[in-house]
Amino acid sequence: MSIPRTPPVLGVIGGSGLYEINGLENTEWIEVASPFGAPSDAILHGELNGQALLFLPRHGRGHRLPPGDINYRANIDALKRAGATEILSLSAVGSLRAKLEPGMFVLVDQHIDRTFAREKSFFGPGMVAHVSMARPVCARLGRHLADAATALDEDLVLGGTYLAMEGPQFSSLAESELYRSWGCDIIGMTNMPEAKLAREAELCYASIAMITDYDCWHDDHDDVTVDAIIKVLRKNSEKARALIKALSPRLGSRDAACAEGCHHSLETALITAPEARDPALVAKLDAVAGRLLTPKD
């Protein structure tokens, strides 16, 4: 189980169109069992520019899993068990703003969760926790990503609100216009509850959204189709891999727990009294919250 002060281990969750990372050395696919069920796939262990890296294909290799059937809890739990201390999420999204064009990348800084059929917490009856999601992504990890994009001369939009919808269908025109009126910038199906669970697991989390289309609101563009998305994703995937390579050497500068508080997010979140805790649930939380729940010798 990862301890916040250990050298950083980057976990990458790859979305649509990104199923592998070129340049990884000493690679091995390892199955990681989770008490929360089966993760999307095995985890690819490797090193990139000397940085330990873990890669998990969110939809499974071959894109087997739709967004609503991804076991987000098992994915985050498995990455934590495998040693991840920070997570970079890469996902395809639609744009809700004319200025955010297909092919552009957005560094997400806020989320609105409109999913409704997913398990959203590791905690529950017998062990209750309430983590803060006021700032759902790690600003420190975001700064590293911004620096990496600058070094590559890549156009990374800094900041954007991600509307997470349930799917798997795309939006109706009325929904698309509603989300635009709310001030949302992009729309996708996978960042929630992923970001919430990463916070509960005391992991730094940042999200790069790769824009593939204009959803269905833009009069001058066709409605979103899978074929159109795949065409843009093929171009975006190489840019995403380059960004990961540029990010990895920057992570080594952290020699203590994240200054943003990500690695200690549960310290003010656990509320159930010790004598009222469910031992079975506490046992399942050995990776997610064992730092606080495991008795010290």
Can you lay out the helices and strands and say which pair or pack?
Blueprint lengths: L9 E5 L10 E6 L12 E6 L2 E7 L14 H11 L3 E10 L9 E3 L2 E5 L24 H14 L3 E3 L2 E5 L7 H9 L4 E3 L5 H7 L3 E10 L12 H22 L31 H6 L5 H4 L4
Parallel strand pairs: 1-4, 1-5, 5-11, 6-8, 7-9, 9-10
Antiparallel strand pairs: 2-3, 3-4, 5-10, 6-11
Helix pairs in contact: 2-5
Compact description:
This protein is α/β, with parallel strands linked by helices and 297 residues long. 25% of the residues lie in helices and 21% in strands.
Structure write-up:
By secondary structure, this protein is α/β, with parallel strands linked by helices. Helices cover 25% and strands 21% of the residues. It has a domain of 200 residues: Nucleoside phosphorylase domain (Rossmann fold), CATH 3.40.50.1580. Strands 1, 2, 3, 4, 5, 6, 7, 8, 9, 10 and 11 form an eleven-stranded mixed beta sheet that branches. α3 links the parallel β9 and β10. α2 packs across α5. It is globular. The model has no long low-confidence stretch (mean pLDDT 92).
Structural class: alpha/beta
Secondary-structure element string? EEEEHEEEHEEHEHEHHH
CATH architecture classification of the domain at 89-288: 3-Layer(aba) Sandwich
Distance between the termini: 17 Å
Largest sheet: 11 strands, mixed
Count the strands?
11
Question: Features of this protein?
Answer:
297 residues; alpha/beta; Rossmann fold; 11 strands
